[in-house]
Fold:
Amino acid sequence: MLNKKSIRKAQSGSTPQFQLRFNKSLRFLQNAWLLMALAGVGLVAPVQAAPLFNSDCPPGQIVNQGGCQSLALALAANGGRVYYVAQNDPNARDSNPGTQGLPWKTISRASSVLNPGDAVIVRRGVYREQITPRVGGTDAAHRVTYAAYTGEQVVVEGADVVTDWTKSGNTWRTPWTLSLPVDAGLIRQAYATVQRREMVIVDGKVLRPVSSQGAVVPGTFYVQGSMSAPTAIYMRTFNDSAPSGHIVELAKRTPLFNPKSGTGWYRVINFTFRHAPNAIQRGAVVSGATGGLFEENVVEWNNAVGIHTDGGNHVFRGNSADDNGQMGWGGVCDNCLLDYNEAMRNNWKGYQVGWESGGGKFSRSQNLTIRNHLAGDNQGPGIWLDVYDDHDVIEQSEVYRNYMAGIMLEYYTHDILVRNNVVWGNRFYEYTGAGILTQAAYGNTIVNNTIVGNQAKGVWFRRDPRLATVGSNKVVNNIFAANGTLANGGGQGGYEVSVEATDIANFRSNLFNGNIYYHAGAGSGTKYFSANIASPPAGVQRNTVTDDFATWRQLINGDGSSFVTNPLLQNLSSYTGWHLLANSPARCKGVSPPVAVKVDIEGQPRPATKADIGADQALGVCR
Structure:
């Protein structure tokens, strides 16, 4: 259960990190408080809600066996030794035995000692070093664990303070010779400034790179010389004052957590990793080969990708990958679970959106589950599966105000289940601003989602020359409302639903049923339905754009239990307004879904029949 501090932050909106967790906990808290109230008057047995997250426990404790337990005791249960690092302890030395009374000074010292089953507890501080474990664990019961002390901030910092600045015209200069190259195959000349890896941080805020010394304005910097042979950095602080009045840092170390190749079974708890000058497609934090357990870490303000996943069988829970230069998450992850994580405001450097950017992009991943995820305000798709992903699940998540698409499935990605999500207000970029976009993908299931207020299309099944067959999708029990908020979808067409296909059989291989369509409040020129059939039969137009539901039903040869009406959501203009009003026509009107949908976005149970349409199962019994 959320602690009161988390609830206050979520209510005030001061830290979006807690917003999804707060939304999902409201009803749980209401029910728990009701039970406690009833217990107080003797109507039910006393109850005590179990903590959901380590941060809900008191300082020095984590969740273990359904409750909060001493961090040291919980970690000792692995059967190994528990060591301590505390850089601010006056007795700390790397020559110490690493006990609580005689801790080590650096995390690197711990990495040189830890064996399977061992753990290190790290106390507060800014650690300007890299964590490079030499060995991993052997299984889930014998992981190698790195744990920040609960209630204290432990920062693994990729940058060092630099004070050697001299005036140069209207800029400030320091010598800089650290080579930070990019793989030659990834270099794109149009993004030469963006893809450089140098980072300048002033008072904790990242400056933006520019392409020449003359272009340097307050809040920016320029690197003289090539990637492999730089000579100097020129910069101006945000308020254009002298560096001497500020803490100025230059990024030097990456990755910040990087296990030895082939090792796995790591557990990493409650660290903050920031300011790694990592290269394109490389992570500041790397998962290891298998069996990782990453809990409630913050990975932020790194140059490229926040968290990079390799191999499989990893669990990521309660982590935030926010404000990274390219993407929050990325990589390959088979049989992985991402639960209660977030990816916010990524791609601040401005990498090409259609290439690789945004909240997170996973490729060639099987049986990956992304659940209870928050992806918002990214300059790129919120959640992106690309290149031979299959049998993945995206569910119970909120995906909003991202560029190009909220959820994007691409290039032979198939058999993906998109269930119980709210996809709202995603923004137009290049050629679309879709809620859900599939490109050269097929056979995916979109069920019980609320897809509202996206700037171009609600859902777009886009045909692509790379793959002829793009059908066999199932679109059932979704709410499509007020999509196409830009006039004519930014000039590319604004539709609640847009389907492209090679021929009429391919077009009709898509199953639509039990949906609600509504577009009052959408932009001018927006239509409900768009059908684009490359080789239509006689009597059928190649392009059909219509508001006529009968025409759509005839074309798709289905959608018989869907209807056009106002779904009566709490607030169509806010990503938090997706709950159904009590008199919503979506109540109890869902058809039998193609896959089981036992709960809603908040974990509330759904009835087996006559469930509500959309992501929300409103309280109350369907009759």
About this structure: The chain has a mean pLDDT of 91. The chain has seven helices and 48 strands.
